[in-house]
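Late entry, written up from scratch paper. The run itself happened at the end of the previous shift, but nothing got recorded in the book at the time, so transcribing now.
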Amino acid sequence: NDILHYEGYDSSIISVYENGFVIPKKYGSTIVTVVFKGNDYYDSAEKNVTVTVNRLPSIFNVIRNYIELNVGNESDLEDLVWLNGVTTVLNYNSSDITVVTVVANKIKANAKGSAQINISFDGNDEYLPNSTIITVNVNKIKSMITVENDNITLKVSESVEIGAKLNISEEYNVTYHVLDESVLKVENGKI
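Output as recorded:
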């Protein structure tokens, strides 16, 4: 429309095309003055239009707000927080870094306990600030001892291997306890 002109607005907030189509650039408010300059038949006219550009309500959504991990395990934050298709930097703070830390977008379980991860975004020209909390419960790794022989009968001069194994994800030493070493002695898993 070459009869109407759009003037006086803050071009850092919006763009206005000759046809009156408005494109937002960042949040804020500005006034567009629509101007008709007049001609031989009509007087000139002006009309102010207030244009307000609002930021989007949230840059991220929480998929899960509670997880359980075992000591030493990690969880990708991508499995817990969805960024609405936007690449941005979120802030992470642990309520107890002895239990849980966040490094390189991974939650790391350090010790048994419970902690909260505060996830926040400071806001920008497109999105409002936002924050949420994810609770992380950290458990010790379950362990179990299995033995090949759980009922052993032998003569004084014989030896037999107990065959004890500690069934956990990491290897630890198994300690054997004997109540009376004058009756029984254990060395390297053998009686």
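The longest strand covers residues 130-139.
(Scratch paper discarded after transcription.)
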